[in-house]
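Mods, move this if it's the wrong board.
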Amino acid sequence: MDFILWIIAVILVIAGIIGIIRHRILWGVILIVVGLLVGPGGVSVLT
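Not the wrong board. Structure tokens:
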């Protein structure tokens, strides 16, 4: 389960960075924050 959460978190953070590069700052920041919250290394929302 931790591996799946880690993969989802990485995808969200990468999507957030791409969003910031494409000038969608708010969407990018939201995706990065959600990625950090979901990731098993961060504050996991699911536990």
